Amino acid sequence: MIDNNMVEALGLVLECGGFEKAAKALFISQSAVSQRIKQLEECIGQVLIVRTSPPRPTPAGKQLLKYYKQVKRLEEELSSRLVSTADEKYSVLTLGVNADSLSTWFSGIVHDFFKNHHVLFHLIVDDQEETHKLLTNGDAVGCISASNVPVQGCSCQYLGSMQYKFAASPDFCKKWFPNGVSYESAIKALAVMYNTKDTLHHKLFNNIFQKLPEKFNTHYIPSPEQLLNGVISGLGYGVLPNIQARIYFERRQLVDIFPGVYIDVNLYWHCWNIDLRFLRIFSKLLIESSRQALNP
């Protein structure tokens, strides 16, 4: 049977970045921390930590770390249920979310939930193709992801889709696309993308022209709001979520440079299959609210 004190020592060594810091957090000696982890490795029959600086978990160590984080969440949940209302502690929901969702529709749901529940949100922002890894590593209890494959030990629910379109300012179009947008003019024009993980520009471009250049002349702006401002101000043309850009199309501050052409990104809610009360309630609200915010 696994001793939770040993698992806690493992978790703190990895979270704190070293044996000395873990010892301080546990109020025990560094040698006692080392002994607990050694005993845990002997119990499991596998090496759990690569003794580098900072220490890194082995694949088996990652699995135990995920277990440790789940147990911590359950302990926090139990504590919040047992204390009186006057002494009620905040529960923590650590969630992964893509930047476009956070800047458009997701934050409103967070605000609505917080009004009625004693919860602190820890939001980790990453690309929608990457957020599910936060569940795999045990770094989050739920995430918005473009993947429809459930992570082991987690559930997966379809939320809806976000529609993305190519957009540019009227002045940018006059300068770079005076005769309309062709493959040649599009690869010469300056582009604006979120970061190097952002593949939407490439996917939509390939859907339109059935080929890709070796590279684009690209500005990288890792902020949805500032990326939008960059496109409006004429830094380049870019792929924007229609939920964010449509008001600027209506005001003619932006031009839909390929009318009727778009790419849909399906979004899914993944969360741990453990009985965390606030996670369960938030999941229900998120699924219901996303039907109004996203395309079916």
From TrEMBL:
<dbReference type="GO" id="GO:0003677">
    <property type="term" value="F:DNA binding"/>
</dbReference>
<dbReference type="InterPro" id="IPR000847">
    <property type="entry name" value="LysR_HTH_N"/>
</dbReference>
<dbReference type="InterPro" id="IPR017685">
    <property type="entry name" value="ArgP"/>
</dbReference>
<dbReference type="InterPro" id="IPR036388">
    <property type="entry name" value="WH-like_DNA-bd_sf"/>
</dbReference>
<dbReference type="InterPro" id="IPR005119">
    <property type="entry name" value="LysR_subst-bd"/>
</dbReference>
<keyword id="KW-0805">Transcription regulation</keyword>
<keyword id="KW-0804">Transcription</keyword>
<comment type="similarity">
    <text>Belongs to the LysR transcriptional regulatory family.</text>
</comment>
<dbReference type="GO" id="GO:0003700">
    <property type="term" value="F:DNA-binding transcription factor activity"/>
</dbReference>
<dbReference type="Pfam" id="PF00126">
    <property type="entry name" value="HTH_1"/>
</dbReference>
<protein>
    <submittedName>
        <fullName>Transcriptional regulator, ArgP family</fullName>
    </submittedName>
</protein>
<feature type="domain" description="HTH lysR-type">
    <location>
        <begin position="13"/>
        <end position="58"/>
    </location>
</feature>
<dbReference type="InterPro" id="IPR050176">
    <property type="entry name" value="LTTR"/>
</dbReference>
<dbReference type="InterPro" id="IPR036390">
    <property type="entry name" value="WH_DNA-bd_sf"/>
</dbReference>
<dbReference type="Pfam" id="PF03466">
    <property type="entry name" value="LysR_substrate"/>
</dbReference>
<keyword id="KW-0238">DNA-binding</keyword>
